[in-house]
Amino acid sequence: IKTSLQFLALRREGNTVDAKKQRSAFPPNFIHSLDSSHMMMTALACRDAGLCFAGVHDSFWTHACDVEKMSHILREKFVELYNMPILENLLEGFETSYPGLAFPPVPERGHFDLGKVLESPYFFN
Predict the structure, then answer these.
(1) CB neighbours of 77 closer than 8 A, spacing ≥ 6?
(2) Contact 55, 62 (CB under 8 A)
């Protein structure tokens, strides 16, 4: 359906999901969801700290006088996000939604110290 603002596609009964497209689309969409979660966590923390915030995809903006504060916040929120059991939660959700399917185990976490992100001058610039 074409409207003055957008094009809408409606699902009709009988249309099946293209499993191949779903398999290839899931990984990048999942990563984008993590990126957007990081941005939202940063935006909320900036608001709570009294900073102006704007952003698009992986570009975060604030006033020049607040860049250092925002840089600290976005690092903290990155560490907070990736310390969560993201893959474990994803697997649990899949197992709950699709109880008849077998899923591979979550890979072991590596040894990277996420805390190093807090001191990295080039982590996000």
Answers:
(1) 38, 41, 42, 45
(2) no
| Catalytic choice (48, 58, 66, 113) | 58
User: For residue 47, which phi and psi values (nearest 5 degrees)?
Assistant: -60, -45
Which residue has tokens 């704007």? Answer: 54
Distances (CA, A) of 71 to 5, 25, 67, 121: 36, 31, 6, 9
Please state the pTM of the whole predicted model: 0.82
Distance, in Å, from the CA atom of 52 to the CA atom of 63, rounded to the nearest integer, reads: 7
Residues 6+ apart with CB under 8 A from 76: 45, 118
Report domain extents, the chain: 19-119
Query: pLDDT band at residue 37, thresholds of 50, 70 and 90?
Result: very high
Which tens digits make up the pLDDT trace of 72-84?
Answer: 999 999 999 999 9
Name residue 71's amino acid: S
Active-site residue, 48 included: no
